[in-house]
Specification:
By secondary structure, this protein is of the alpha/beta class. It contains 13 helices and twelve strands. Helix 4 crosses helix 12 and helix 9 packs across helix 12. The two termini are 37 Å apart. The relative contact order is 0.18. InterPro entries: Amidohydrolase, Bact_exopeptidase_dim_dom, Peptidase_M20, Peptidase_M20/M20A_hydrolases, Peptidase_M20_dimer, Xaa-Arg_dipeptidase.
Length: 392
């Protein structure tokens, strides 16, 4: 079968599943669940693909809301990552209902032709992208050990291919001091709020020397109980971001020193608790990205040329990309002036444009897989890279 004929077959397969896929996207949107708690989302997806003939492992890799669903038995394993967690209070303001449904669309489009193509389609349910990093947990558990290439699409205000992301590390910060009456006996107290203030001043001074793209952001979540009581406990949430993991490690070391300075100056006790997994910078495979770009444009999408310098936020797909050839294109739809991680963006998640993004994103990924599976050079390169990784 010619590549053109295969494209048309997958398009027809997906057209026959349109109602299921749009229904899935809308159901995820209407029932948002937070990181590591996406039980109904995972069940909705696994029920759908099991009914389509996929072999499914629920609660995979030690995560109750992760799964692996496979079709085909070829030696080239393609991992398609489905995200489906939401944000606290604002639901699917990052469009993960679109992300998850598009991943399912790609898997369903490819499944009938997997054995003919000599591939195994592995739909990987990846929880907790917004907080925690389920993909990192799954990497450690071996979910990607046999995967030759990984992909997903992400909802956005516009299409983009080949972009990078920032590495990120998050902390919960705590200073423990000693409470005392602020007027009668202040000398008997140890001011935890002052420790936080000194750390924040030190971080502000450090910002002049941050590496390009470096960001330190945070909020104080507890700063005291009353104006006449020296605070015995102060807490904060802080993020450190940088362009690469190497830069992140250096930045994080400096920020840690700023927090230690607050403890040293006041005598308060410092506790830094990591939050979830560190996210690595995203490194997209340019050969895969070019195939996706061609597919998206063939579907009539307005996609700018590949721009590796374009930078987004942070994603645990970055960690996958350091191990596996990966793409993470953005699939856009009209959302007015709304920006991601904003309640306004949530409202556009079930519009006709978002529905088209589900289908186009799924089909563009499917066509990307067709390209790599039928191109002997590309296929051999992926197989060689997997073998080298396995031996390492």
């Amino acid at each position: 079968m010619t590549p053109t004929a295969l494209r048309e077959r997958t398009r027809a397969t997906l057209a026959g599943r349109r109602d299921d896929l749009i229904g899935l996207s809308h159901a995820l949107h209407a029932d948002p669940e937070l990181a590591y708690e996406e039980h109904r989302a995972a069940r909705r997806i696994t029920d759908l693909v099991e009914a389509a003939g996929f072999a499914t492992e629920r609660g995979a890799y030690g995560l109750p809301t992760a799964f692996r669903a496979t079709a085909g038995s070829g030696d080239l394993v393609i991992g398609i990552c489905a995200e489906y967690d939401a944000l606290p209070g604002i639901g699917h303001a990052c469009g993960h209902n679109v992300n998850g449904a598009a991943a399912v669309a790609a898997a369903l489009a490819l499944a009938p032709y997997a054995d003919d193509l000599g591939i195994t389609v592995a739909l990987l349910g990846t929880p907790a992208e917004e907080s925690g990093g389920g993909k990192v947990d799954m990497l450690r558990a071996g979910a990607f050990d046999d995967v030759a290439a990984a992909m997903m699409v992400h909802a956005a205000p516009q299409d983009a291919v080949g972009m990078t992301s920032q590495a990120i590390s998050s902390w919960k910060v705590r200073y423990d001091g000693v409470a005392a009456h602020a007027a009668a006996m202040p000398e008997r107290g140890t001011n935890a709020a002052d420790a936080m203030m000194i750390a924040q001043v030190a971080i502000a001074a450090y910002r002049q020397q941050l590496p390009p793209g470096g960001v330190v952001s945070g909020i104080v979540t507890r700063g005291g109980e009353a104006a006449n009581v020296i605070p015995a406990l102060t807490t904060a949430d802080y993020d450190c971001r940088a362009g690469t993991m190497e830069e992140l490690r250096a930045l994080r070391s400096r920020v840690r020193a700023c927090f230690e300075a607050g403890a040293l100056a006041t005598g308060a006790e410092l506790t830094l608790e990591p939050v979830g997994n560190d996210y690595a910078d995203l490194r997209q495979d340019l050969a895969l990205a070019r195939s996706y770009l061609d597919a998206a444009r063939a579907l009539g999408r307005d996609v700018r040329d590949i721009d590796p310098a374009l930078r987004g936020g942070s994603t645990d797909m970055g960690n996958v990309s350091h191990l596996v050839p990966t793409i993470h294109p953005m699939i856009g739809y009209d959302c007015g002036d709304a920006i991601m991680h904003n309640p306004e963006f949530t409202r556009y998640g079930t519009t006709p444009g978002a529905d088209r993004a589900v289908l186009d994103g799924g089909l563009a990924m499917a066509w990307t897989v067709l390209d790599l599976a039928t191109d002997d050079t590309h296929r051999a390169s992926l197989a060689r890279r997997l073998e080298e990784r396995t031996r390492a």
